[in-house]
Amino acid sequence: MIAEVHNDRYGVPKYAGQTMKKADFLRWESDDNYVYEFNNGVLEPTTSMKQEEVHILNAIENHFFTTNAFREGGRLRAEVDVWVSDRQMRRPDVLFFTKVQFEKMAAGENTVPTFVAELVSENDDARKYIKKLHEYFQAGVQVVWLIFPDDYTVYVYTSPKTVTICTDDDTLSAAPALPELQMTVAELFRR
After folding, report:
1. Based on the domain organization, do 107 and 175 belong to the same domain?
2. Which residues contact 22 (CB under 8 A, 6 or more apart)?
């Protein structure tokens, strides 16, 4: 069951909950301002990162630029389609790929990042993120940050059962995926 989605900026998504075969989904483009994730044949609407949230991505990138992973050709990307299984495609807000993973993607191989971050807005359904956590870890993701901008809080998951809740001057870590990527919550949300 898909929760009714409505976004003041985009309106009601036309295709929420509709079913589609994977082959059709791969050729399809929405025409209603939403981007859709694919979950076992069901279309699930999502929106892009808001401009007022880009400072969070910038903070993560600024700390990432100081890491060996960056110097070795790894990169953070925003909102890339990731097939976490043959029947599920997700679009995490922030993802990390190594240089080798980029080469595999260029060769047409599906690649799963080891680190993802999701920005959770007040309108998001928490159950959706719990399901995504399980999907991410089953696919090989090692660390997930669930970022709650309205509450200045970050949940750092290293498994679906292992979470550290961080606020204020607590240190966020992307270990084991990116051990050098660390910052405080205050640094993450600083404008």
Report:
1. yes
2. 38, 41, 86, 87
CA dihedral 40, 44, 47, 48 (to 10 degrees): 10
Residues 38 and 54 in one domain: no
Do 56 and 43 belong together in one domain?
A: no
Q: Are residues 37 and 80 in the same domain?
A: no
What size, in residues, is the chain?
A: 191
Q: Which of 130, 24, 39, 129 is nearest to 82 (CA)?
A: 39
Q: Are 1 and 20 in contact (CB under 8 A)?
A: no
For residue 101, the one-letter residue type is Q
pLDDT one-digit tens code per residue, 70-97 = 999 999 999 999 999 999 999 999 999 9
> Which domain range does residue 25 map to?
1-47
Write down the pTM of the prediction: 0.89
Cα first-last separation, the chain: 38
3-class DSSP state for residue 73? coil
Question: Does residue 98 share a domain with residue 39?
Answer: no
Residue ranges in the chain assigned as alpha helix (H): 22-27, 54-64, 68-71, 99-106, 126-139, 185-189
Question: Same structural domain for residues 55 and 112?
Answer: yes
* Domains of the chain: total: 2
Alpha carbon 179 to chain centroid, angstroms: 19
Q: Are residues 67 and 86 in the same domain?
A: yes
